[in-house]
Amino acid sequence: MPSVLDSLRKISIVVADTGDIDAVAKWRPQDTTTNPSLLLSAAQDPRYKGLVEGSFAGDLESTLDNLFVAFGCEILKHIPGRVSTEVDARLSFDEVLSIKKARNLIALYESRGVRRDRILIKLASTWEGIRAAERLEREGIHCNMTLLFSFAQAVACADAGVTLISPFVGRIYDWHKAARKVDDIPINDDPGVASVTKIYGYYKKHGYKTQVMGASFRKTEQILALAGCDLLTIAPDLLQKLSSAEGDAPRKLAAESSFEKKPLSQADFLWQHNEDAMAVEKLSDGIRKFDADARKLATAVGALINSARAAA
After folding, report:
1. In this model, does residue 1 exceed pLDDT 80?
2. Which CATH superfamily includes the segment(s) 4-307?
3. Pairing between β-strand 83-86 and β-strand 13-17 as defined by DSSP bridges
4. Cα diameter, the chain
5. Are 39 and 301 in contact (CB under 8 A)?
6. Quick count: other Cβ atoms within 10 Å of Cβ 194?
7. How do strand 164-167 and strand 83-86 relate by DSSP bridges?
8. Which of 10, 26, 122, 296 is catalytic?
9. Across 229-233, average pLDDT
10. For the whole model, what pTM was predicted?
């Protein structure tokens, strides 16, 4: 009997959520997503020492950009689709600098012979990040909007014509689990699953081209509850569980929504997002955590640069 993962692949594009190149090679997903936290872990792995050292440039910022692109290029050797590369979280509230950084990352990929249609630039789903993505999409630079927790963020992203959004199922679940002071939430009451289901129905009902990619899963039940989502980005440990289980993964999502199509002004967006306490807290927390891991990565790479200079 086929595995649950095999069944799931028939109705959703499976994406690997990892910076581990060996894991990508093993699972052969369509696409792969990365972020500073994942690359911090991968860059500290002795297996990838050569990639890190090969990224050294004249300054730390250029070295880090080279490192992100180096990992992306290696990942692309093992997949037929796209890799997502994230813009510095510290730029989440700066539209102009986010655009500049995205263009630079694309230029680095293209200098290595990688077409821009194989890259998704990841931006935080702030108002400024969404506006940056809107401009980048017009230049043929495709964007993956991350740290998405509220319906307002999803509506604004679709109106901006972005390629892809990544609503964070697991982090929504974590917040509500802590708020309710429980150890678990039944899948039919899971707020993370409900959020993606609502967004998917709204997008499909109103004909948006933006794809929905469920992300940040804590358990396989959440993944299977969203079977049929355009894409699902899954960590290697959960890919293993789905691959080891025999069975079917029936479609769960449908193009149904009671919400009418209504573009949001900046004031509408900020107010509606502000109304969702979970989304406000998790967006801010996510930006801080990505920044913290990016700083740790910078410190580690900076130490290697200094060591190499001292030995020269």
Report:
1. no
2. Aldolase class I (3.20.20.70)
3. unpaired
4. 65
5. no
6. 15
7. unpaired
8. 122
9. 97
10. 0.94
DSSP character string of 136-158: HHHTT--EEEEEE-SHHHHHHHH
Is 122 labeled as catalytic in the residue annotation? yes
Q: Which tokens hold the place of 109?
A: 């990929």
> Measured on CA atoms in the order 214, 5, 27, 114, is the torsion positive or negative?
negative
- State whether residue 113 is helix, strand or coil: coil
What is the C-alpha to C-alpha distance for residues 89 and 219, in angstroms, rounded to an integer?
27
Q: Give the separation between CA 89 and CA 106, rounded to whole angstroms.
A: 17
Lookup: tokens for 46: 């002795």
Q: How many angstroms separate the CA atoms of 241 and 214, rounded? A: 17
Query: What are the Cα distances from residue 304, in Å, to 47, 67, 195?
Result: 15, 13, 42
- Residues facing 123 on adjacent strands: 145
Per-residue pLDDT reduced to its tens digit, 168-206: 999 999 999 999 999 999 999 999 999 999 999 999 999
Query: Can you name the residues that pair with 76 across neighbouring β-strands?
Result: none
Q: Which residue type, as a one-letter code, is found at position 242?
A: L
User: Is pLDDT of 312 > 70?
Assistant: no
What residues does each domain of the chain span?
Answer: 4-307
